[in-house]
Amino acid sequence: MTDLSNPPLPGALPDKRQVAASFSRAAASYDSVAELQRDVGSQLLARLPAELSPTRWLDMGSGTGYFSRALAERFADSDGVAVDIAEGMLRHAQPLGGAKHFVAGDAERLPLRDRSFDLIFSSLAVQWCADFTAVLNEAHRVLQPGGVFAFASLCVGTLYELRESWQAVDGMVHVNRFRPLDDYRHMCAASGLRVRSLEVRPHVLHYPDVRSLTHELKALGAHNINPGRPGGLTGRARIMALIEAYERFRQPQGLTATYQVVYAVLEKA
Predict the structure, then answer these.
(1) Domain for residue 252, yes or no?
(2) What is d(CA 151, CA 187) in angstroms, rounded to the nearest whole number?
(3) How far apart are CA 88 and CA 82, in angstroms?
(4) For residue 105, what are the contacts with CB-CB under 8 A and spacing of at least 6?
């Protein structure tokens, strides 16, 4: 039964229980469609300070463990911990190795000791956290002095093509909401961590048709899980109207889907 005593606020981020369940269901299909996720994570890895040599690292929001394995390869003499809120993702990742420990946990309340890591790496996970200030506070708490928190996230402007196309159809919430870039800037500046770098870069993907895009979002577990989303099945007439509306974004390579990616590297003094 839905509790209506505290209805979701307009613009609220998705409920983390729904986030966990959605990504758990997507564990088996995730890597087959995760082109953007691999690209973004690789770019975040490239932004790590060249002198960084952690003895213990944390992959926060580790998903299928793709970048836990990359971190283990890059920092061969280190110990790694993979944390994710989606237990299905951890069950999928653990047999593949990479991290030494796999822990079910919330980035806003990490079940980890103070000052226990030299590096926190988090690629395309913190956009699902409603309280990003709590994420920053937890990063500050579990980092050693001199430790680095590197994250990639999504901000406003992500999937604007899909959002505007749905807006033309029915005006309802069909696309996940993301924070404004200025919110990331202000919260990082106030976090007590030194901002070594913070920038936004667009990643544009192309699809032959709308169905290919929506199928990929579902396979990633990143389909619409917002408060206020329409319930039930989407009727054929609305789908046809969406397809027609999205055609204005077609380029020679296909229909565009833009992701506005925030890359940040922070350091504990």
Answers:
(1) no
(2) 13
(3) 13
(4) 83, 84, 85, 111, 112
Residue 131 lies in a domain: yes
CA distance 193 to 216: 35
- Assign 137 to helix, strand or coil: helix
In order, the DSSP letters of 29-76 are: HHGGG-HHHHHHHHHHHHTS-TT---SEEEEET-TTSHHHHHHHHHST
Q: Domain span at residue 77? A: 16-157+176-203+258-268
In contact, 71 and 42? CB cutoff 8 Å: no
CB 66 within 8 A of CB 31: yes
Each residue's pLDDT tens digit, 235-262:
788 889 999 999 999 999 999 999 999 9
As a 3-state breakdown, the chain gives helix, strand, coil percent values, each rounded to 5, of 40, 25, 35
Asked whether the beta carbons of 261 and 40 are under 8 A apart, the reply is yes
Q: Give the model confidence (pLDDT) of 24-52 as tens digits.
A: 555 445 554 568 889 999 999 999 999 99
